[in-house]
Amino acid sequence: MRHRPFIIILLLIYSLQLHAQEANSYLAPWNRSPWVGDEILIPPLRQKVKEANSQPDTADLIIEEAVKHLGKPYRYGAKGPKAFDCAGFARYVYLKFGIELPGGSRPQYTKGRKINDPKKLQRGDLVFWQGREASGHIGHTGIVVNVDTLTGRFLFIHAATSTGVIYSFSTEAYYARRYVGACRLIGDRKKPEEPLPAKKPKKR
């Protein structure tokens, strides 16, 4: 009987250690206590992160759909699927996911939430430029594929007048001097943005 308080104290300490281990397992590796067994805790956590990042979100699915149409010709007023104009292309892709857009670039720009800082763009955002006349009126639409969140430089996919559906960079002279802004029609991504490629991706 004299040992009972000592046993109770030992059980209490053991219980507290178990709770601390469980709480510690949710911390980043550099914040964990040194006595926590990394060989036990890290692999399951890594697997959970890997599984979460492997799940496609709406933005990934939008880009996946857009890429299917690379190389299809441009035709004014065409809304797909055999040919597109720029607004028709964006409308066709978004409609696949239950988001109905107007048929013109200018009315499309009035939709969604405005993203004024290019560094805050994400995959799937719609981006807009002035038309060829550079009159200030919206005349072209694209869909963001990747973005450099440090510089605001981004890769986008769009139906260009001279080439049809292609990839382009925002820093190309024609687009850099005509860029107007962007809007977001889907929720903010929980995944980190993918690195911006140095070159335009090849057609798949």
Can you put this structure into words, describing what you see?
- This protein is of the alpha+beta class and 204 residues long.
- Helices cover 33% and strands 18% of the residues.
- The chain has a 6-stranded antiparallel β-sheet with strand order 1-6-2-3-4-5.
- A hairpin with a 6-residue loop joins β3 and β4 (154-160).
- The chain is globular, with a radius of gyration of 25 Å.
- The termini are far apart.
- Residues 22-41 have low confidence and may be disordered.
CATH architecture of the largest domain: Alpha-Beta Complex
> Treating each run of at least 4 consecutive H or I residues as one helix, how many helices?
6
| Cα separation of the termini | 76 Å
Give the overall form: globular
State the CATH topology of the largest domain. endopeptidase fold (from Nostoc punctiforme)
- The quaternary structure here is single chain
> Radius of gyration over alpha carbons?
25 Å
Which consecutive residue ranges, at least 5 long each, have pLDDT under 50?
22-41
Strand order of the largest sheet: 1-6-2-3-4-5
- Number of strand segments: 6
CATH class group of the largest domain: Alpha Beta
